[in-house]
Write a structure and sequence with these properties.
The chain is an alpha/beta fold. 50% of the residues lie in helices and 16% in strands. It is built from 14 helices and eight strands.
Amino acid sequence: MAGHYLEFERPLAELEGKVEELSKLSETATGGFETEIDALRGRIEAMRRKTYSSLDAWQKTQVARHPERPHLNQYLSGLIEEFVELRGDRKFADDQAIVGGLGRFRGIPVMVMGHEKGHDTTTRLKHNFGMARPEGYRKAVRLMDMAEKFNLPVITFIDTAGAYPGIGAEERGQAEAIARATERGITLGTPMVATITGEGGSGGAIAIAAANRVLILEHSIYSVISPEAASSILWRDGDHAKAAADGMGITAQDLIVLKIVDRIVTEPAGGAHSDPAATIAAVGDAIEEELRALMPLSPYALRQQRADRFYAIGRSLQ
């Protein structure tokens, strides 16, 4: 189990603390405490399964933001062979909030990109906490252009609180860059599969998620605005984030009913952060299945399927 515990995981933390204490005592005590330790571990596993089977929207939001949840770099290491990063938008700069490049996914040459939040202070600052500036989205457009030129499928991983809202980003055309990236996804002539691995926030997420198939991890979220921001608008403060999350329909289970996502990828008991390797393997299996189903389609059929998919969302929500 990960070392960082969420508020609702405190009972689990207490039990795991007892297991740790007994394990240390067992090293020196005659006879040991193996029976007691095994019983506690069984109790922990049962409690973890029960807890994670009934999370509310706000708890899922916390899980989606868990600092030990697998990040893009782990997906690249676990799923992409011969990865070659391609940097820069050829207009202003390179934005490391979105990382992308060429590689092989289970033998298939692909273009892959996604949000990287970073895992410590240094890398979080380097990647701007996964909040991309205009040059990040313009880099994404450049990579999608290249993918179409060389007939490469596109795989994306989404994990961002949203696009960076700074003055410089706005001055360089943040909204236009997001719109262009979204448009490029819709018009792409090669297969595109997107996976929401953590937090899918607003236009910053949809800019690289306008795909033929949109997958989402079981405890991830996807929303037009964060619960905290919705609370500040509706209640004039951020203290009602839980109520906002409950009413916004942002969980994977809500989104599959609304047909905003196409498939939920099951997480290990205890969330993706409890077993990153198993999570990455499950995501890879789901992407491979979806991608191989799309690859025989013509460029026209791919564009039409993508357009029909997104038009249907608006019609079904009227």
